[in-house]
């Protein structure tokens, strides 16, 4: 009996957006208007690429970025929740599917000593170039019209589950914990026995309730959380059953 926990990262594990937090490193802590206005819907990764070039051009180095990123607060109760999951790893497989990047997530999890809680992290690959600039690439290519160009979380989840099945691992239940609009696509993929946990007051919760109103509700159960303690209470019930 094993459960799969799928976490988003920004505004779910951490209480901020890691991509906008890095702007604290920019001169005067802000971006020029031209750069800020260059974002086009569905092309966030390209936009962040330009942000990283701007930071590099202004002499922002890796160690300063790392120092800044590791000051991001975790969401209320999240440290307790991740500690609890870490103590019960024999019952939980745990993955992150995020539109952040490998460098940011790695820094933040390692600084808080939570990297061992997660079996895999699926996010946009990032690295520092030989000139010291941070670069980021698309996670994958996909054909889902609902998702941003660089990442369809449903595709990631489906491929992960297929790979686990090949290894002989299947899950009693999937619990999907997220907050954003791009978490709806994988939530729509969940089955009757699974649980979606949208963060209260965020886009995912609103989108799920719109579906309920339009009489095309999601198949899975929905439990809203405001503190990660709510998630932990549910998981404790789950492993008692």
From TrEMBL:
Active site per the UniProt annotation: 8, 10
KW Hydrolase (keyword) present: yes
Residues engaged in binding Mg(2+): 8, 10, 179
Named cofactor requirement(s): Mg(2+)
InterPro entries per UniProt: HAD-like_sf, HAD_hydro_PyrdxlP_Pase-like, HAD_sf, Pase_PHOSPHO-typ
Protein name: PHOP2 phosphatase
Lineage: Eukaryota, Metazoa, Chordata, Craniata, Vertebrata
UniProt-listed Gene3D superfamilies: HAD superfamily/HAD-like (3.40.50.1000)
GO molecular function, one term: metal ion binding
Top-rank taxon: Eukaryota
Species in which this protein is naturally found: Panurus biarmicus
Family stated for the protein in its record: Belongs to the HAD-like hydrolase superfamily. PHOSPHO family.
PANTHER family found in the cross-reference section: PHOSPHATASE, ORPHAN 1, 2 (PTHR20889), PYRIDOXAL PHOSPHATE PHOSPHATASE PHOSPHO2 (PTHR20889:SF1)
